[in-house]
């Protein structure tokens, strides 16, 4: 936390507790909001931590034991800490009674299965229908590490709000609004790291060159961040991938490294994450009154923990972790797979249809 470069560049002040309402205008980057740069951890610490994360079981606090009664015991402990959102559905909707649910959905591993080729992480038509249906009742946003354009290609629903690049690229369009008043599309675009675009492009090029000799390594330019996927890399080369990425980042002191599911994420050193993106969306969509809105965030990855933490600290709403194994998490509930996510979304729709038959009849 002592990087002099980062400290000297705290040029944009943002109150940490909340942001002002964004200026609304068409087709331009919102300039009334700003972010704070944060210090960058020493690279060596990042890589050391990274190598721990790269070990498959390192995120599990209590892995399943695949034999005998221990499996049940481990399962019971996990379910007590982070119960199934399906089994707890009645409890969730009881707390949502009389409130609007604001829904936030990660994409990879939440709406789509994790696949070897990130370009082919398609969501099923059934999942798309479930997401589309739930937007009839709940304002819904996709919050993804992918570029906003890429995740929109995958989801392809205009009814949603989109936050790409881990919330560094947020588009709020009135086409997603449930209270459309005219045909004129109103756009709010928030890109707190826009000045980093040339740097991201440069580091993307360097990372591609650095990892081109590693079989299976895949560098994905997500506009405001770069993902280095090592899912298809031989395990003996994982450390080499981390070292190569670390080496590239030595020339980019204003970029930092975070980790996801078999992916290294290179991001700008600014105090902004999926949790901040959720706060931004709640406020800019005027959904930040806990008396009338219950936010629910569903995600499967470490980067989603920032959003789970925001909801937990606001004491308002629920994080739902998608995972087949127990993990250290700030989420309140869990689901085991994208298919359970779909079941949860369909349950929300059924509940809302029963609660609001008039809305359903108008469809
Ligand atoms: Mg994910």
Summarize the structure.
With 363 residues, the chain is of the alpha/beta class. The protein has 12 helices and 12 strands. It has helices at 4-8, 43-53, 68-81, 89-95, 125-135, 148-155, 197-211, 238-249, 274-284, 305-314, 338-355, 357-362, and strands spanning 100-105, 140-143, 161-164, 169-173, 187-190, 218-221, 226-229, 255-260, 263-268, 293-299, 318-322, 333-335.
Structural features:
binds magnesium ion; 363 residues; 4-stranded antiparallel β-sheet; 12 strands; globular; 8-stranded mixed β-sheet; single chain; alpha/beta
Q: What would your notes on this structure say?
A:
There is one protein chain. The protein has 363 residues and is an alpha/beta fold. Helix content is 35%, strand content 16%. It has helices at residues 4-8, 43-53, 68-81, 89-95, 125-135, 148-155, 197-211, 238-249, 274-284, 305-314, 338-355, 357-362; strands at 100-105, 140-143, 161-164, 169-173, 187-190, 218-221, 226-229, 255-260, 263-268, 293-299, 318-322, 333-335. Strands 5-4-3-2-1-10-11-12 form an eight-stranded mixed sheet, sandwiched between helices. A four-stranded antiparallel sheet has the order 6-7-9-8. Strand 3 and strand 4 (169-173) form a beta hairpin. Helix 2 (43-53) packs antiparallel against helix 8 (238-249), helix 5 (125-135) packs parallel to helix 11 (338-355) and helix 9 (274-284) packs across helix 10 (305-314). The longest helix is centred in the C-terminal third of the chain and has 18 residues, at 338-355. It is globular. The N and C termini lie far apart (54 Å). Residues 1-34, 38-48, 55-72 and 179-183 have low confidence and may be disordered. The structure holds magnesium ion. Residues 106, 108-110, 299-301 line the site of magnesium ion.
């Amino acid at each position: 936390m002592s990087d002099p470069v980062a400290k000297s560049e705290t040029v944009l002040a943002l109150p940490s507790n909340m942001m002002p309402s964004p200026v609304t205008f068409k087709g331009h980057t919102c300039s009334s909001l700003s972010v704070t740069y944060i210090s960058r951890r020493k690279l060596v610490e990042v890589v050391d931590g990274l190598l721990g994360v790269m070990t498959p079981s390192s995120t599990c606090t209590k892995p399943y034991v695949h034999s005998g009664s221990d499996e049940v015991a481990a399962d019971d402990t996990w379910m007590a800490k982070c119960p199934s959102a399906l089994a707890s559905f009645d409890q969730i909707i009881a707390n949502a009674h009389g409130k609007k649910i604001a829904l936030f959905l990660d994409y990879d591993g939440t709406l789509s299965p994790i696949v070897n080729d990130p370009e082919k992480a398609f969501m099923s038509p059934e999942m798309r229908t479930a997401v589309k249906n739930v937007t009839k009742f709940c304002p819904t946003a996709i919050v993804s590490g992918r570029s906003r354009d890429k995740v929109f290609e995958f989801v392809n629903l205009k009814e949603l709000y989109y936050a790409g690049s881990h919330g560094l690229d947020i588009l709020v369009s009135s086409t997603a609004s449930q209270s459309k008043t005219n045909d004129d599309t109103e756009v709010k675009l928030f890109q707190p790291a826009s000045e980093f675009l040339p740097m991201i492009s440069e580091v993307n090029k360097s990372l591609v060159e650095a990892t081109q000799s590693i079989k299976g390594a895949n560098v994905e330019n997500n506009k405001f961040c770069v993902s280095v996927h090592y899912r298809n890399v031989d395990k003996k080369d994982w450390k080499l991938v981390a070292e190569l990425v670390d080496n590239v980042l030595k020339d980019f002191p204003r970029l930092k490294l975070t980790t996801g599911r078999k992916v290294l994420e290179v991001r700008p050193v600014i105090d902004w994450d999926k949790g901040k993106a959720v706060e931004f969306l709640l406020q800019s969509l005027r959904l930040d009154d806990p008396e009338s809105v219950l936010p629910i965030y569903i995600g499967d990855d470490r980067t989603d923990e920032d959003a789970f933490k925001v909801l937990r600290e606001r004491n308002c709403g629920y994080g739902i972790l998608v995972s087949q194994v127990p993990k250290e998490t700030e989420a309140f509930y869990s689901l085991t797979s994208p298919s359970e996510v779909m079941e949860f979304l369909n349950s929300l729709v059924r509940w809302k249809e029963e609660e609001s038959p008039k809305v359903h009849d108008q469809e």
